[in-house]
Amino acid sequence: MKQIVQPQIQHHTSTASSTSSNLPSVSPQCYPHRLSDSGGDDRRNSLICKNLIINLMFISSWYLFATLISLYNKWMFSPEHYDFQYPLFVSSCHMVVQFVLAAITLASFGSIRPTIRPNLKDYSKKAVPCGIASGLDIGLSNTSLKTVTLSFYTMCKSSSLAFVLFFAFLFKLEKPTYKLTGIILLITAGVILMVSSETKFEFLGMVQVLSASCMGGLRWSLTQILLDKRSMGMNTPIATIFWLAPTMAISLGLCSLIFEGWSKLVAEERFFGDLLKGLVTMGYVTAAGVMAFLMTVSEYFLIQRTSVVTLSIAGIFKEVGTILLSTMIFHDVMTPLNISGLGITIFGIGLYNYLVKMKEKIDFDSLCLK
């Protein structure tokens, strides 16, 4: 079974194999510095650079849209700003927008349209749980922004790697080790330190954002499984959005109907008092949905090309940037303990990245010795 927490090894091995297979009399599984064919080295290095540039483009795209939508959501849901108190409704609308954009994209580009469709049994047992987890992640994240600062939200969401590892253990996709367990505990300690020193502590908001982080770990673990199963017809990011968005929209819509009340929503004079106000409000919602689509496409492409953990690691730098922006735009206050807790969390994620790279090197060395 494909490992969800160490898939970088497989992807890099695949790159090396496919490139080196063009070289005469050279083992395709060895390091480039061990190859004697300088032309082969050039071809391999060229492909590695090309792959790196493409990955960096997707990371940059993800950084841009993820940061924009974080700032946008905080502005929209915060009582101090636009004060639109219906995050679940907005999230469900985002899913509808993403579904429509995915359908248009698949209809326009046949090359990315899967020929296989998931059957009802697979869809209900595999896709629906992933969609519900995704919906809960997004819904709880947006709801928490009503009460917590953007910097506190971002710091708590940095715990997602710990939940990714936890669900990898739970699904037996990764063998538990003392090192990985220690990393989970280290990240957890960092989060506890950040939470305990928050200047504007809101217990409900903290529970919501940590629950969102938990659902995020489950969400991306299940997403990578779906992307790797061609029999599900979700081996392309756009197809994944197309099949998951309806489940996410329905689950979020039902939660919005129950907990927010649509009759109260449409009676809001400031947002739906007349046609113009309604169009402006829905324009804001739709614009955020487009940004969410572009962000999600970038996320899925990164997972497909690398791994869910690579996404989490790259996300640390995005989160640091988001915290800096939140202190400048929303004047969030960072205490020394906040910063220390964030530093511990980042150290834990960096340590995990180091372990992955060492495991990758050992695997390559083992292949070369065979």
Automatic annotation (TrEMBL):
Q: Which residues form the Sugar phosphate transporter domain?
A: 57-353
**Which residues lie within the region annotated Disordered?**
1-28
Domain of life of the organism in this record?
A: Eukaryota
> Where are its TM segments located?
52-72, 84-106, 151-171, 178-197, 234-259, 279-302, 309-331, 337-356
Q: Which UniProt keywords apply?
A: Membrane, Transmembrane, Transmembrane helix
One Pfam family, short name: TPT
One GO cellular component term noted in the UniProt record for this chain: membrane
Write out the coiled-coil annotation as residue ranges.
Answer: none
Main localization (coarse): membrane
Q: Where is the composition biased (Low complexity)?
A: 13-27
Xref: InterPro entries: EmrE-like, Sugar_P_trans_dom, TPT_transporter
Where are the compositionally biased (Polar residues) regions?
1-12
Membrane-related topology note: Multi-pass membrane protein
Subcellular location as annotated: Membrane
Designated name of the protein: Triose-phosphate transporter family-domain-containing protein
Q: What organism is this sequence from?
A: Phakopsora pachyrhizi
